[in-house]
Each structure stands twice: as C-alpha cells, then as structure tokens.
C-alpha cells in the first residue's frame, strides 16, 4: 500500500480559512425604493425587552442577534425592517417589507459574502411574498439554495422573526 503526505503551504491554509468578504449588493436607499417606491418612511427604531427576546427564541424558535430593531413605518401603511443574520462565514444584511395586512410584500438583500449572493435572485426572494406571522418552519416554507443552505435558512428564520416582531412587539404610534 502506498500513501503520500501533502503539506499545504501556510499562505494557502490562511487564505482558505479567512472569512468571506462582504459585498454590497445595493444601497439601503435603493432597496427601500424597490420595496416601497416613492413612499414616505418614518424612522421607528425600538428595543425589544429581554422577555420579548426570550419569547422569540423559545416560542418561535428563531435566533435573535440583538434586541435593537431598525424599522420604518410607511406613511401609506406597512413597515420596513432592516435585519442581519449569519451566513456561513459572514453576516447577511437584508430588508423585509411588511404590508398593512401583515404579510411580506418583498425582501431585498443589501450585503452578502462575495461569491455567496444567490439569495439576491428574484425568484428565490419571491418565495417570501405573502408569508404571514405564525409558527411555520423556515426550512419547509422556503426552498434552500444548494451551496447557500445556511444563508437561505437563516434569512428565512430572520423573516419569521420579523413577522413575529411585527405581529407582537411593534411600538404604539405617536
């Protein structure tokens, strides 16, 4: 029996282990205009209580990266949420548009790892349109993208979290 031991040069090993570089897919303003063209957006950021964060994790079984929620009320009705989830070696930043009836009307990806931006494909993002709050399973409701299974699953979990936040934890309008 013949065997061979290969040494990988240190520079190659370091290059392979580096996290993926984030790629700006589009600006926040451009994504907002795609989701709510010409709408007046009213900044409405808020902080979830520790009890709300725990409820999201336990009841809805979704990860919560931070309690701060970046959101805008849409003057004509609806909400827009900026969120982030972990991909394989990066953080994916995306927007979720929720209409006045509480259904997703669209999502837009803002930042993803270079070479791992298959979640920007319109057909994949269209799967979210019409989804509403509930205890649905992200892995069953949204098709995972081969090679991007973590990013696509985590975005679906993030959308589920946003819908729960929209349904249960919105601040009262002033």
Write up this protein.
This protein is 31% helix and 24% strand. It has 174 residues and is α+β, with helices and mostly antiparallel strands. The longest helix is centred in the last third of the chain and has 20 residues, at 149-168. It is globular, with a radius of gyration of 19 Å. The N and C termini lie far apart (77 Å). Residues 1-21 have low confidence and may be disordered.
Shape: globular
- Total helix count? 6
SSE pattern, N- to C-terminal:
HEHEEHEEEEHHH
- Average predicted confidence as pLDDT: 79
Share in β-strands: 15-25%
Q: What radius of gyration results from the CA coordinates?
A: 19 Å
- The total of beta strands comes to 7
- Terminal CA distance: 77 Å
Contiguous low-pLDDT stretches (5 residues minimum) are 1-21
Helical fraction: 25-40%
Q: Biggest β-sheet, characterized?
A: 7 strands, antiparallel
**What structural class results from the helix and strand content?**
alpha+beta
Provide the number of structural domains: 1
